[in-house]
Amino acid sequence: MSSSDNDVRTALRSAFASHSVTTEPAELDSHAVDKGPLEHWQVHTPLAVVFAESVADVQQLVQLSAQHGFPLITRGAGTSVSGGANTTAGSVVLNLTRMNQILAMRPEDEVAVVEPGVINADLNTAAAQHGLMYAPDPASYRTSTIGGNVATNAGGLRCAKYGVTRDSVLALDVVLADGTLIHTGQATFKGVAGYDLTSLFVGSEGTLGIVVGVTVRLRHLSQHTETIAAFFDELTTAAQGVLDIGKARVQPAITELLDHRTMLALDEAQGSDLAARGNTLLLIQTDGHGAGIEAEIIREVLRALGATVSDPGSTESERLIELRRHARGDGVVTEVRVGEDVAVPRSRLVDYIRAIQDLAVEHEVQLKVVAHAGDGNLHPTFSVPSSELAPEPDSGAEQQNDDDGAPASAMSRLHAALDGSVRIALEMGGTITGEHGIGTYKLRWLDWEQSTEVIELQRSIKNVFDPDYRLNPGRAIL
User: Fold this and answer.
1) pLDDT tens-digit map of 131-190
2) What residues have CB less than 8 Å from 431, skipping those under 6 apart?
3) CB under 8 Å to 378, separation ≥6 — which residues?
4) Residue 282, strand partner residues
5) Cα(73)–Cα(476) distance, rounded to whole angstroms?
6) CA-CA-CA-CA torsion for 307, 308, 314, 316, nearest 10 degrees?
7) b/e map of 13-44 (b: 16 or more CB within 10 Å)?
């Protein structure tokens, strides 16, 4: 039975130190949302925020959730872009950012054990002292936490060679919905005892349990890297370059694609000159002792397609990689935009880009394309000028608006393009999300990709782990 809001707040203040619980309006508002796109009716002020500092704190809060019946929303830095950490009605937020210790660094085993609040970049800094790295590197790596990366199975620039978060997680410590602490997996690279519960928790978006410890695999930090900037006159030719590199049987660590509109936006925001150098940029980095040899093979492949390719030893490599991490950009007042992170088989990369270019023309919207091209994960963004959303002055007619207040014609065109881009990806054998997760935003598309039987099976798994649906309800599954 659910307790009253005041009873919940009283119970929290009794169970935790004053510095660990807040009901301050500013804190509640900042914890109500993440970076995902939300409608106004989806925003709920939480009852309180609890900052856990230990596994015992997490267990205590979970037990209070069971006793009082309130939903529990777990979050780290709040960098999710799919609405995976926004609060629901009557919920309490569990913030894990204070659990930020690297508990063990075992360089000979190439393994680290960390708490969920450890920042991705901080783990990499610590590993680098031993000539190692933590391979998953989402664009938000300077602020996002390992726990959040685990929750969404986060990707990044190096995924094509080193895999996503799941490929670097060996074991987990998890608090279940009844407060029980379990350990899954092992600290060895190999291990097949029982069902792979570790992989089940990775990417489950906090709906099955709360990750309070992560054992990760580390990789060798290469002392040799070469970055190649290849500028093309045409977007689909650059996409073809990705396929031709694969045919040459070279595996870059990073293969990123930026279209002209993206480069223009970067130039304006960052003061670069990318757009003046070509219509599309293919940004590639090789690593390892053979980095120079592989880079030269790639240069030959791309020059054969007519690209203008940077020379060996270019000093702008790190600058370009950093620019790429800002490529999706922040919202600007001159446009309204919607975007996604579909993935398609790499062999359909050219076909997909051509198809969404046609889609943008059909729906009269602008299109920007950024892609982790090496693994077929694309971030198409459709937009219309903000001026199209303003009603005509003195028109004498009542403006028909969508729920968010924008004129229906412009917003409907945007969403039609977005839905179309998702359907095309699925038709090509792809997926509705390559790395951002379902959250709340993409639930509307889940049954486009997954059958009723598969969705029901996932509901059954949810019922086993969280029968009362208190852990991050309304995320990841329909």
Assistant:
1) 999 999 998 999 999 999 999 999 999 998 999 999 999 999 999 999 999 999 999 999
2) 342, 343, 425, 449
3) 341, 342, 343, 344, 349, 352, 353, 369, 370, 371, 372, 425, 434
4) 230, 257
5) 13
6) -90
7) eeebeeebbbeeeebbeebbbbbbbbeeebeb
